[in-house]
Design brief:
heterodimer; A: 310 residues; mainly alpha; 2 domains; two-stranded antiparallel ribbon; 16 helices; globular; B: 227 residues; alpha+beta; four-stranded antiparallel beta sheet
């Protein structure tokens, strides 16, 4: 009697099981969703900086002077660029980001995107946030993946050249696995940090963050609509979701609920903390693309293929 | 370009495979990238939970790109807003100056670069002096009444208890806030102000000849979070 794959896998050593998991095909949409949406979220976040590239990267704005290597807030000092060069860097950032998103020479564009993202994150610490730091990581992961094979301009051109060509529905990609582990890692670390911070001592941590310049109309509406205990409930919900994220995302039965909960949490963050909306979009993209069920993605892939005749 | 994972068609009509797997990308460095990814994830986790181990053994840029977790870990005891004043050469007094035209990125929220400069470096004299030079040059070049120095302060504003009515945040003139609500972090010493304004010292002006506040640093400003 032949043994089934799960039975075989159960008998493997941990290392072999890991590499077997790494090499298991996954729906191509897991990768294509990140390839399409992540650069847009990153460019959206950067748009307010790109609009003033001379101030951001160039000599037209305030620059923190070289503090030497002793300062952890300045990991590497990069001097200001001349104004014209700052605008070229900004243009390269936009062009490479859009090329990745549209699937036009996606892998090569992803290398450019990652390089520029790393440069701008180091160049101006004052304008760098989590999205700035994650951008080069996402870019490198996409550059090392077979992204752009199913949807996008390159795939469309290949299909146009050979109408009988079967475009891949699945890919083997360590980058997808990386994204799948990245989210629970960030969440878990964040949850533990919150436990070590004020989240177990102070019942209104969320409430305390509703009052500054991050406010939106939704913040005001909900702050004035919801009873005080609702903010404590949100706080408990967030803490449980984040701290035990590896469990929620590894356990197949609860994973759909975890995806929904995490996506809802980021939707709320995006709606209630204006400037954080692009961070929320990036995280939601990675969560949905990495952890939504394969069946749903396969169905979505077929529908999308029919819709755009790809 | 793709291999067929499931070559048997479901029906006689459809001979096309349902699952087509793209071939793996050939890479001599695959193991290297697996190790890099593992190290990155480990650093993200360790740094996020508050371990100082990554800071001790990893290069600063590597650590910097790994610091993406641990956001909003503490409660914000106050709303913090940083402001600037200039020493008016003509009126010989401090007047509020709006620095937002020279810090145009996210000019109306705390992701603004002026706000961030104060948030990170308000206790760093080198950066504060560079900021002072920048603000004075921009102000004096923009046609505003000339200033000979700057004073950077934080406003530390209370918010209502949970469940009570809140109003949208409004940026009011610095003069409308009480002395208890503001904390001065840096100011240009008098000799430098006088020198820039081309004036002689006036004995009636007081004795603030240091660029550091004498009162102990407030902790509230240290508890700001930003994603």
């Amino acid at each position: 009697m032949s043994e089934t794959e799960p039975t075989l896998r159960a008998r493997m050593f941990v290392g072999d099981r890991f590499f077997s998991w790494l090499k298991t095909p996954v729906p191509v949409l897991r990768l294509e969703l990140v390839r399409f949406a992540a650069p847009l979220a990153i460019l959206g976040f950067m748009s307010s900086r790109i609009a003033y590239a001379d101030e951001w990267l160039g000599d037209g704005g305030f620059r923190v002077p070289d503090l030497g290597v002793a300062d952890p807030r300045q990991p590497l000092y990069l001097p200001a660029l001349p104004g014209w060069a700052a605008w070229w860097v900004a243009a390269a950032f936009i062009a490479s980001g859009l090329a990745v998103s549209l699937g036009f020479h996606a892998r090569r564009a992803a290398w450019v995107f990652a390089s520029v993202a790393a440069y701008v994150a180091l160049s101006d610490r004052l304008a760098a946030f989590s999205v700035s730091k994650m951008a080069p990581v996402v870019g490198v992961a996409l550059a090392l993946s077979p992204c752009g094979l199913r949807f996008g301009i390159d795939a469309w051109r290949q299909r146009r050249a050979d109408p009988e060509l079967r475009l891949p529905t699945h890919v083997v990609s360590g980058s997808v696995r990386f994204f799948q582990i990245l989210i629970p890692t960030i969440y878990c670390a964040s949850g533990i940090a919150k436990c070590r911070g004020d989240w177990l001592k102070e019942p209104f941590v969320l409430w305390s963050h509703l009052h500054g310049t991050y406010q939106t109309g939704v913040t005001i509406l909900l702050a004035n609509l919801l009873p005080a205990f609702a903010w404590t409930l949100f706080q408990v919900f967030t803490l449980v979701l984040e701290t035990f994220a590896p469990l929620w995302f590894a356990w197949g039965r609860v994973r759909p609920v975890a995806v929904l909960a995490a996506a809802s949490m980021h939707a709320m963050i995006g709606l209630m903390f204006g400037p954080v909306r692009y961070f929320a979009m990036l995280m939601a993209t990675l969560i949905v693309a990495s952890h939504i069920s394969a069946e749903r993605l396969e169905r979505a892939e077929k529908r999308l293929a029919r819709l755009i005749r790809a | 370009m793709a291999e067929e994972l499931e070559p048997k068609p479901r029906s006689k009509k459809s001979k096309r495979p349902k699952v087509v797997v793209a071939p793996e990308l050939a890479s001599r460095f695959r193991s290297f990238w697996v190790v890099v990814a593992g190290l990155y994830l480990t650093t993200v986790w360790l740094d996020g939970v508050g371990s100082t181990f990554p800071a001790k053994i990893t290069p600063r840029p590597w650590l910097y790109f790994s610091q993406v977790a641990a956001l909003f870990v503490t409660a914000a005891p106050k709303v913090i807003d940083y402001r600037a004043e200039g020493w008016s050469c003509s009126e010989r007094t401090w007047v509020e100056i709006d620095v937002r035209p020279w810090f145009r990125i996210d000019r109306d929220n705390k992701e603004n670069r002026f706000q961030r400069a104060l948030q990170f470096y308000r206790k760093n004299r080198t950066v504060m002096q560079a900021l002072e030079d920048f603000v004075i040059k921009r102000n004096n070049a923009s046609g505003n009444p000339p200033i000979g120095g700057v004073r950077f302060a934080s406003l530390r504003l209370s918010y209502p208890p949970a469940g009570e009515h809140i109003a949208p945040y409004e940026r009011l003139p610095l003069a409308t806030y009480s002395g208890e609500q503001r904390h001065d972090w840096y100011w240009t010493p008098r000799p430098r102000r006088n020198e820039r304004c081309g004036q002689h010292a006036d004995p009636k002006d007081g004795t603030d000849d240091s660029d550091r506040p004498s009162s102990p640093a407030r902790k509230d400003d240290d508890r700001e979070s930003d994603p």
